[in-house]
Structures are given as structure tokens and as C-alpha cells.
Here is the input.
Amino acid sequence: MKFKALLYFVLIVVLNIVLFFSEGCGVNDLRHIRLSSPSDGAVEGIDGGVSDAGHDGGVMNNEDDLSETVNVYNIKNPSDPLHPEPGTGIIVNGVIVSSPCVPNTTETGFSKFFVEQKNGGEFSGILVIAPDELIVDSIAVADIVDINGYYTEIHGENDTCSSPVIMAKYISTAGKGVLPSPEKVEDPHEIASGGHLLHEYEGVYIEVGGVAAITSTGVNSRWKATGGLTIGNMFFSRPVSAGEAFESIAGILHIDSGEYVLEPRFADDIRVLGHRFYDLDGSFPDAHPYDAGQLIPDSGVSDGGADGGIEIDAGVDCSTRAGHAVISQFASRGPSGGNDEFLELFNPGVEPINISGWKLEAASIAISDGGSVSVQWNVRAEIGDSAASPVLEPGGYFLFANKNSQGGYSGAYYDAKYTSGITDQSGVRIVDADGNVVDSAGFSSHVSEGKEVKNPCPASGSCSASVVRKAHAASNAESMKEGGADSESGNGHDTDDNFSDFVIIENRMPRFSGSIPAVNPCQKGDVIF
Here is the structure.
């Protein structure tokens, strides 16, 4: 085993030498060299006595007990007294996964993802590359993980462009955590190639405001934004038009092919600035960014916003807004088939809701030959104290997903999983810790609130549509779809009639506890931007 560890160390050293003399400094250079970790059998460790990738719940160690226990701050900050030398065996415990896990596309057998210290900040994030056999049960955003491996720095032609990387040998998960808030960057120049915050924020989840597209591009392509910032497509991409303005763009900053790139992780990381466009002479329109129909009430007095708040859109009827958590979106199948399903929970109120102990239940409907109907409710998932977010914040979401060893939910992120599916023509409900029904929805009149909603998906095959609760009474399918006028106003409309309360959108957009909270169009009081 010690010989294998030595061989792996030599591989890391050779890798650094090769990349130091190569052009560019991106982590994509890793794809051109075959990476492999030692094959480990029953190796003595400090967790349960056997190196089992930490699956017995202990803290991992490598076979020769020479690894240094460090945190990401130690690794990323070269001035830190505990900063390890390249090639050092390291143990990093209790970090949170900050990005989806994706294949290292041109190097078969390896995947990559980013992790971050729970407190965030400068030097808090780093890239992890691991053999696919270590990626057990699909590592997801907000997972807490322990990693044992080797630290290396991948350099280009000069030391101003380097990418610290953890080469993982063992990975174990330790429940769910809460994602750190993105670090705020005011000027995109600061994180574009040549900017002065690159070293501090490389690998970190950050958010930059006031940016616009300089180039037009289709889906699955990079594009240039103001300040010379490059927006990547590692995890998520969307078509953009030159001049399209954004309230903010969040993502992971990293080095790729010699260039610093901001990588949005999900659709929620890109906040569209209404339907406004940036003036290519370098200025933004004078109108307020929220003048596109999603206006929020100030003091409740019609004063033209003179008291500093923003007045409510006259078309928003707040009388039907729910005062409790609601089922906001669900689908009984998806692009990957019948098990690709989810249910989304939303808090339309102004106070946090403790959802620990709440259950997702699915209906089983039986109709006898004589026409009598019996309904049995079966628990699919329960929210425990270790869930990603056992408190549902105002405007926040919680996502249940059907996820098992055979696949299921095709999205990259969720908060709680279940492994037994929901039938296409039944219903679902949420029950609190005391057994009270919080909300229900159904495709059948036997289990729905009021009139049932129609299932947009066929009884077999794949489907990209979902059923979405309206933001308010005037919302419709067009306004509730991604990018629509009400898509960021939450899902608070509730008249206890599923047919009236929900609409069908063609492309589903599930949200989870780490998604950007919805704007409450009925919130009283001034709004801080």
C-alpha cells in the first residue's frame, strides 16, 4: 500500500512538472493526462478501522497516517502557516459541496465538483477531482463531505495563473448543510482575467451585480459580459443577446484554459433585470429595475413611492395569498421517464416555518366493482433535523425528489429524497409533525382540494412539463414560466381549489433551499435592494 501511495505521489509531481511547462493554466489541462488513484483494499484507518471511504461514519485517513488535516482556507491561502506543499496528503473534513458534480468530459472515469468552507469568504472554495467510483449516490449541492487525497497546484507559464486542486482518494458524505451566501462583488473587472480579486475568490461561490451581455450566443456556449468577465457553461447555460442586462449573476469562479470564468450552477444563479437592456455605450437605463410588473408595496399608501418604498402593482390581488406553506410545484414524471419526479414546497409568508418532522405522502386510490372508493396515504419522505434546511424561510423553497440507485430525478440538487414513486393519476399532500394536513394537490377528484388539476404528462414515456401554483389570481402559464413576469414572485395563490390555483408550464423549473428566495408581491414595508 505504501508503494501505491508513493506511486500516486510521483504522479502528482509529474503532473505539476508537465503542466508548468505547458501553455495555459486551466484545469481543462487535466483532461490530457490520465489520472488514477491507488487501488485500496482493507486498509487500516482512524475511522472504523477499515478504509471504507468513510461509509462507517468516521473521519477518513490514508494508509500511512501521514496526511495532514487542513481546511480549504489553509490550502488556498499561500500565506497561511498551515498551507501544504504540492503533493502533500491531506484530509479535509466537513466541507459543503457548492456545485453539481459533472464529468471531466474528455477524460473518462473522472468527475469534478467544487467544495467550500461553511463560513464562505475569501480562499474558501476549491476544485475536487475524483475517480467516478468514489462518487457514490451522486454527490449533490449542499452535501457535507469529508475528503482524503492529495493537494496539487496546477500552473501555467507563470505563477499568476494557478489552480489549486484536491485529488480525492476517498470521499464520504455526512448529511446536508446550508449553502454559504455568495460573496458579493460590485465590479466585474475585479474577477475577470487580470482582476485583483482572482486569487481570493478562485473556486468560491460569488455574485456580481450590474452586468450585461456583450456578445450574443446560443445555449451551451460561453459568453462575454461587461468588465471583460467570461460566463461559462460547465454546469448551466442559456442563450443570451448582446445588450441583455442582468440584476446579478452568481456562480463559481475558476480557471479554465488560461482564463478566469464565472460558472453559474443553475438557472436561479442568473437574475434577469426584467425585460430591460443595457445601453452598449456603457450606461444602464434610468428606470428602476423592478418596473417590469413585479412591484413590491411600500408603506401601503399610494404616494408614488415618495416614502422610499416601491408601490404594489395594481394588478396583484393579495387577498388570496396563503398564510401557510404550500405545494408550489410538482411533476409525476420527467425528461428521464416515470421516476423523474419531484415535489416543491414554498413559504409565501413573512415568518420562517419549522418543517422538521413534516412528511410527504402519496395517495393510493382503489375503486371497487361496486364503485366505492378507498384512499390510502403512504409516507414517501420525512424531513429530519439533518435536512438541508429544516426551517423554511420566507420566500424559500424545499425540494423532495424521487432518487434511488437506478436514477430517478434528473436535476442536480434537492433537499430530501424518496425512493418509491408517485402514480400519475393520484395525489400528494404535506403533513406536519403533529399529523395535520398542511396542503394537498391531486390529479384525481378523490384526493384533490376542490377540482383536480390535469396531469400534463402522458401515462408513459418522458415529459418536461410541471404543475405550478400561481403567484396571484391574475397569473397564468405565460407569466409563471421561467423568465415570465411572475416567475420570481413566488407561489402564494391559494383558494383551496387545485384547478384554479395551479397552471401548467411546458418546462419545469424545480427550486430547492439553496435557490434565491422569491420576491413577495404582497409584503408590507420598504424593500432593501
